[in-house]
TrEMBL record:
<feature type="domain" description="Helicase ATP-binding">
    <location>
        <begin position="18"/>
        <end position="135"/>
    </location>
</feature>
<dbReference type="GO" id="GO:0003677">
    <property type="term" value="F:DNA binding"/>
</dbReference>
<protein>
    <submittedName>
        <fullName>Helicase</fullName>
    </submittedName>
</protein>
<dbReference type="GO" id="GO:0004386">
    <property type="term" value="F:helicase activity"/>
</dbReference>
<feature type="domain" description="Helicase C-terminal">
    <location>
        <begin position="206"/>
        <end position="350"/>
    </location>
</feature>
<keyword id="KW-0378">Hydrolase</keyword>
<keyword id="KW-0067">ATP-binding</keyword>
<dbReference type="InterPro" id="IPR050742">
    <property type="entry name" value="Helicase_Restrict-Modif_Enz"/>
</dbReference>
<dbReference type="InterPro" id="IPR006935">
    <property type="entry name" value="Helicase/UvrB_N"/>
</dbReference>
<keyword id="KW-0347">Helicase</keyword>
<dbReference type="InterPro" id="IPR001650">
    <property type="entry name" value="Helicase_C-like"/>
</dbReference>
<dbReference type="Pfam" id="PF04851">
    <property type="entry name" value="ResIII"/>
</dbReference>
<keyword id="KW-0547">Nucleotide-binding</keyword>
<dbReference type="Pfam" id="PF00271">
    <property type="entry name" value="Helicase_C"/>
</dbReference>
<dbReference type="GO" id="GO:0005829">
    <property type="term" value="C:cytosol"/>
</dbReference>
<dbReference type="InterPro" id="IPR014001">
    <property type="entry name" value="Helicase_ATP-bd"/>
</dbReference>
<dbReference type="GO" id="GO:0005524">
    <property type="term" value="F:ATP binding"/>
</dbReference>
Amino acid sequence: MMFKLYGYQQKLIEETRKCLMNGSKSVLIVSPAGSGKSVVISEFARLTVNKGGQVLFFVHRKELIEQITNSFKKGGVDLKHCTIMTVGKVAHRLDKIPKPTLIICDESHHSLAKTYKKIYEYYSDVPRLGFTASPWRLSGKGLGDVYESMVEGPDVKWLIDNHYLAPYDYYSVKLIDDTALKRSSTGDYTNKSIDDAVGKVIYGDVIKTYKEKVNGQKAIVYAHSIEFSKKIAQEFNEAGISAEHADSKTPAKEREKIMSNFKTGKIKVLCNVDLVSEGYNVPDCSVVIMLRPTESLVLDIQQSMRCMRYKPNKKATIIDHVANYTRFGLPDTPRTWSLEGRDKKKSGGNNSIAIRTCPHCFAVISAAYSICPICGQEIGVENKELKVDKTVKVEKIGKNFHFKTDYEKVRYSQMKTEDATSFRDLQKIGKARGYKPGWSFYQAKVRGFVHQN
């Protein structure tokens, strides 16, 4: 039985095929979390196999392999003509696996890692598709080195308005009056106005807030450390709310049982540390509780929107006890994506929990780990403690919280004039800084980018 594609999913496929037919060898498909990327991936695989082709699919985590395999089966894909593996396994079997006619990579914001590039270089003559909800790297590097074209699906607001994602309420702490936050010339809030308000604190009473706002609903809790996640699970249980903690070191069978019990409703609250982020799907989970600050937009989107899978009459609730919304806005905040890079934000006193990419398996993890929770490799430690202030009350953050982030605009607003390599660069620098059009023309004339007769 094949999937029945929604109109926007069919449009994604058609636009991607046009890019390939027009000569692009690598296309990045951007579609929000919960929009059904696995369905689109399965359809690409089915179309390729039905034409006699061979598909190579890879992703960075083994938990996602089982999910895409099930999607392929449901989508009518002949698995005999598919190689489905983690990126690490593919990289070590390049001379053994069947040569593909199409490469598909999910969670492609990881694609700049060496292991991915090794695969791409080995199959340099094979067209490839990448999928991500957020083409954004903490390092600031763009994905233009590995993808020639980008196709974007509908944004989160459109998906909510058209009943493909659940609407949501967002609760957090109003550390400052969001109407009085100072904005920089790029449209973002200034680092200082955010840093003055947001520190290394978990604000509000987690259990009390759950009871007041979403009592009895299924919730996923994201904590910043294993110890704290276990502590929160214990507090929920002591309050008579069934909760379990699971992390990458939880024995596989026990973890599967915990996940199964959560899906069936035997457990109301699932506490974890970055385990339930990419690809985890529980449509009737209606609540996310965020207890880990992050500087990663990718992680914020993946975690905060985990409760927004659509079900009729469902209303999702996001309870943000660490004020991540002041860094990244709300789930349906307008975003402008680009394959180009952006300047990495200087730390400048930012007090959010540091995260980094494991050099062994490339998972995005907390810098507090000395051993990667995904692959078990030793990586050293950087520890930051969080305080807990239970006296603060969370409140609803209204949709009038305007926070537009244009990452290309940020990049050009920070680019030095002497680093421009074309008239187009100078025009974008001028536009980002609010200069008059004559400025870019004059600079281009001085630099020799334009000539007058």
